[in-house]
């Protein structure tokens, strides 16, 4: 009801001849969760005037559930929205099918590695809207009660593990970390050794460096530093942190909105990923999402304009200050908001620093896509569960990867 | 007489059991049967009851599962009603509105010798982290309410010690008053009044009108999501959230309402279509002799073996070309079960041919026979078909999921429930919302069954007897 006068006003200003374009409706879509508040806030608070001036009405349709499925169905049936999210994880399948329009605007303000991630055959197909990296989030109260020093930026794998073991010894009901047998978290450790997912010939070699990270990660449970998330009755590490079952969680900034719902008063600290003792370096994975214009859109120009506005400096500044996501524009990296002391400010700062870790790779695996991770995930799972030893698991993962990449 | 004699002669070796033994055997048999039925019923309703209980909880996944909590505790209901009344003059749904003066008392206890300090009380600015709630939240109690300690008093209590025997504990009761500040310009009604109490872990909360929603910071902080819930607001908090937090971002109207309407429209549409097609088709196959009728019947039977997933791509493309995607029509017409036609055919075949022939002798046309004679007598079969069709359409998940994807208000309730699974980092859902939504969604089918269950089991025979 409140919006109606605003809309009438917008219509009235348009009648006065201000807009350059005729009124066009652009359908945009992204996934739900904490994103709804971000996009809706941008459209109704930050960008409302500008959109009215351009004569664009935006119809925002958040989709909960399987977004990639929704968009791929929609694209093949011709019912997809004009502008939609693409996750770097599956973006390639949309780009290679010619279902996205190349970006024409100037993208010099955006972080180069994010732009690179959405570039396919020399053309940029999506404007990165935000990104996430992994960090160590910890519950200060647990460390206080256990009398153990907080995790710090200077931690190595070993010192972090020692702290977690000490916490578990002091407080038996608390585990150090909830572990998920997934490359999406383990990858940061593997990368910090200097290992790369693909060598110069495009092959994946699970070499000694990978093995070192693999043994450390799978050994966390045995050493008493960690427990499998599923064994703690949770589906992800953030659930364990929220329920105070685990002292730390290795996750991205998305954990902030989850904690707002399930542990709003947690005394939270965030530090960077631990370093590999041998290489002395840090690794990290970059998760990023962009806005893509549907190639079949009838209002592609207006859709591109909406994408431009949604990723403008003003919009990203607002998103950043809500503590909801990290901006993809490098200009905002030294924003004064990031220097504040509130948990979301601190977390955002650390996540942003993660982008400049020593070995950072996007969460993206070339043309094989997400199935590339499956042999590694299976190996992690079977070793953590004690079904096989590292030798057998890695050998079978290596041969599965060889078969996959040979084609 | 003859029959009885023959039966007795046929089994000469079996002597009738003594009356007592026979009776015991019958009793044992019926006891086993009764127990088996009871077990089945308990398993069926037990999960149902547990799920319903979980749908009322703040955390439905809590372990261990408690069966006694505030939402089922009459003392908490009374307290919630009082708090709602004091907060907004609404004992049912509560809230906080101008003029509110809420007294909230908490009692902390500690072993003798440990000092009980006054907890730090705060009305936090609690912001939903996800979903539509986060986008729609406009007013925070923190901006309008102030909290102050009104009085405190000390007492002693006996506590059962860990090693057995009684132990004397001291207790202190703190009464807080929460008031609505009147200095601001606008004075909105606020749905929830959260409260945080921070106290050293050495003292324990022993009494409060309603239990804290969660204990955080390893026992240092007790947090209430809403201290002015009202009795229904306390019990049906998740249900209220389902309605309020699935709102259209532009109009603020509840999406759940439109999902229910859509589901109802689709189920009703499919019911009508099924009845028309199944009765006409069934009658034609049962009575009309035309070339190819056997082939059609065989095709019908064969089509029952094809799962919907096999044809969904082609069906989807057809609907796209007809521009029926994202309309209820696509889901209504996509699926008329051949099983319904078969059911009607079987019924019509059992219908006495002589009556129809008599009608034809009287000059009725084929359609008149069908419409005036056969159909009015086919009510039981039609009802069974109608109920099956309605229930099938209401519970259908696959077709609405595939055919209706946007806008959000066009979904059906079963697909809409999916959107209540908020996710962070790929996991974790708001199960309170999902369970509450699922329970609301079964209400129409439940009503339908209660109203028509007599017809489902009745037929001409039983009707003649009763």
Automatic annotation (TrEMBL), chain A:
Q: Does the keyword Signal apply?
A: yes
Q: Name one GO cellular component term.
A: ATP-binding cassette (ABC) transporter complex, substrate-binding subunit-containing
What does the record give under GO molecular function?
Answer: maltose binding
User: Which SUPFAM superfamilies does UniProt cross-reference here?
Assistant: Periplasmic binding protein-like II
Please give the Pfam families that the UniProt record associates with this protein.
SBP_bac_8
Coiled-coil regions listed in the entry: none
One biological process term in Gene Ontology:
maltodextrin transmembrane transport
What keywords are assigned to this protein? Periplasm, Signal, Transport
Query: Which family, according to the similarity comment?
Result: Belongs to the bacterial solute-binding protein 1 family.
> What is the name of this protein?
Extracellular solute-binding protein
Q: What is the species listed in this Swiss-Prot or TrEMBL entry?
A: Sinorhizobium americanum
UniProtKB/TrEMBL annotation, chain B:
UniProt record, GO biological process: transmembrane transport
The source's superkingdom equals: Bacteria
Provide the alphabetized UniProt keywords.
Cell membrane, Membrane, Sugar transport, Transmembrane, Transmembrane helix, Transport
Gene Ontology cellular-component terms for this entry are: plasma membrane
Q: Which InterPro entries match?
A: MetI-like (IPR000515), MetI-like_sf (IPR035906)
- What Gene3D superfamilies does the entry give? MetI-like (1.10.3720.10)
Quote the subcellular location field of this record. Cell membrane
Where do the ABC transmembrane type-1 domain residues begin and end? Answer: 260-452
Name the principal localization, coarsely classed: membrane
| UniProt membrane topology term | Multi-pass membrane protein
Q: Tell me where the transmembrane regions lie.
A: 32-56, 259-283, 295-317, 329-348, 432-452
Family designation: Belongs to the binding-protein-dependent transport system permease family.
- State the protein's name: L-arabinose transport system permease AraQ
Native organism taxonomy:
Bacteria, Pseudomonadati, Pseudomonadota, Alphaproteobacteria, Hyphomicrobiales
């Amino acid at each position: 009801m409140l919006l109606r006068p605003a809309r009438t006003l917008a219509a009235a200003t348009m009648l006065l001849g201000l807009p350059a374009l005729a009124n066009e409706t652009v359908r945009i879509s992204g996934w739900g969760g904490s994103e709804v508040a971000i996009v809706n806030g941008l459209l109704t608070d930050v960008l409302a005037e500008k959109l009215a001036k351009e004569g664009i009405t935006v119809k925002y349709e958040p989709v909960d559930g399987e977004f990639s499925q929704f968009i791929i169905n929609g694209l093949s049936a011709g019912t997809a929205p004009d502008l939609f999210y693409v996750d770097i994880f599956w973006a390639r399948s949309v780009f290679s099918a010619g279902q996205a329009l190349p970006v024409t605007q100037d993208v010099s303000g955006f972080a180069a590695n994010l732009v690179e991630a959405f570039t396919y055959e020399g053309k940029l197909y999506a404007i990165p809207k935000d990104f996430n990296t992994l960090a160590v989030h910890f519950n200060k109260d647990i460390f206080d009660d256990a009398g153990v020093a907080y995790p710090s930026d200077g931690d190595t794998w070993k010192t972090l593990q020692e702290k977690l073991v000490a916490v578990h010894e002091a407080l038996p009901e608390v585990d150090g970390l909830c572990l998920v047998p997934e490359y999406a978290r383990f990858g940061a450790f593997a990368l910090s050794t200097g290992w790369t997912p693909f060598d110069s010939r495009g092959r994946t070699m699970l070499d000694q460096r990978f093995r070192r990270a693999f043994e450390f990660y799978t050994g966390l449970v045995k050493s008493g530093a960690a427990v499998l998330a599923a064994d703690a009755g949770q589906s992800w590490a953030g659930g364990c942190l929220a329920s105070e079952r685990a002292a730390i969680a290795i996750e991205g900034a998305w954990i902030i909105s989850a904690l707002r719902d399930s542990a709003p008063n947690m005394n939270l600290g965030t530090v960077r990923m631990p370093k590999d003792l041998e290489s002395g370096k840090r690794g990290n994975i970059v998760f990023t999402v962009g806005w893509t214009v549907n190639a079949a859109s009838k209002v592609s120009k207006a859709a591109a304009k909406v994408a431009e506005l949604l990723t403008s400096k003003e919009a990203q500044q607002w998103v950043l200050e809500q503590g909801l996501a990290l901006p993809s524009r490098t200009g905002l990296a030294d924003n004064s908001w990031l220097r504040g002391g509130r948990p979301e400010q601190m977390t955002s700062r650390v996540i942003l620093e993660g982008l400049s870790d020593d070995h950072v790779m996007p969460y993206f695996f070339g043309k094989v896509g997400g199935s590339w991770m499956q042999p590694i995930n299976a190996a992690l799972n079977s070793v953590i569960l004690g079904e096989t030893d590292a030798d057998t698991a890695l050998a079978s993962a290596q041969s599965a990867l060889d078969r996959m990449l040979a084609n | 007489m003859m029959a009885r004699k023959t039966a007795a002669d046929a089994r000469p070796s079996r002597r009738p059991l003594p009356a007592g033994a026979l009776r015991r055997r019958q009793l044992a048999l019926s006891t086993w049967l009764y127990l088996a039925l009871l077990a089945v019923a308990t398993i069926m309703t037990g999960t149902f009851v547990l799920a319903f209980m979980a749908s009322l909880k703040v955390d439905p996944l809590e372990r261990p599962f408690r069966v006694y909590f505030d939402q089922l505790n009459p003392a908490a209901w009374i307290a919630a009603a009082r708090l709602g009344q004091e907060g907004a003059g609404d004992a049912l749904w509560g809230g906080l509105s101008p003029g509110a003066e809420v007294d909230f008392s908490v009692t902390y206890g500690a072993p003798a010798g440990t000092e009980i300090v006054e907890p730090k009380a705060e009305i936090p600015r609690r912001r939903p982290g996800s979903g539509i709630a986060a986008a729609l939240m406009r007013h925070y109690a923190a901006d309008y309410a102030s909290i102050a300690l009104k009085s405190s008093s000390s007492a002693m209590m006996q506590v059962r010690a860990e090693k057995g025997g009684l132990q004397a504990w001291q207790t202190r009761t703190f009464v807080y008053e929460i008031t609505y500040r009147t200095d601001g310009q606008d004075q909105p009604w606020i749905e929830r009044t959260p409260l945080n109490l921070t106290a050293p872990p050495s003292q324990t909360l022993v009494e409060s009108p309603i239990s804290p929603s969660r204990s955080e910071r390893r026992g240092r902080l007790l947090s209430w999501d809403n201290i002015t819930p009202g009795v229904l607001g306390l019990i049906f908090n998740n249900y209220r959230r389902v309605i309020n937090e699935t709102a259209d971002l532009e109009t603020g109207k509840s999406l759940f309402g439109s999902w229910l309407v859509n589901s109802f429209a689709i189920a009703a549409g499919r019911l009508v279509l099924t009845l028309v097609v199944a009765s006409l088709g069934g009658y034609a196959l049962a009575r009309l002799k035309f070339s190819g009728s056997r082939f059609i019947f065989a095709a019908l039977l064969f089509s029952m073996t094809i799962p919907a997933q096999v044809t969904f791509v082609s069906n989807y493309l057809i609907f796209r070309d007809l521009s029926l995607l994202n309309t209820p029509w696509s889901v209504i017409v996509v699926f008329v079960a051949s099983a319904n036609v078969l059911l009607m055919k079987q019924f019509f075949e059992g219908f006495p041919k002589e009556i129809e022939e008599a009608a034809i002798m009287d000059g009725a046309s084929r359609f008149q026979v069908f419409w005036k004679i056969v159909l009015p007598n086919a009510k039981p079969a039609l009802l069974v078909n109608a109920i099956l069709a309605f229930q099938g359409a209401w519970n259908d998940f696959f077709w609405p999921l595939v055919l209706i994807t946007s806008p959000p208000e066009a979904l059906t309730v079963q697909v809409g429930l999916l959107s209540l699974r908020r996710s962070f980092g790929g996991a974790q859902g708001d199960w309170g919302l999902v369970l509450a939504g699922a329970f609301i969604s079964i209400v129409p089918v439940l009503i339908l069954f209660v109203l028509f269950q007599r017809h489902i089991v009745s037929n001409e025979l039983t009707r003649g007897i009763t």
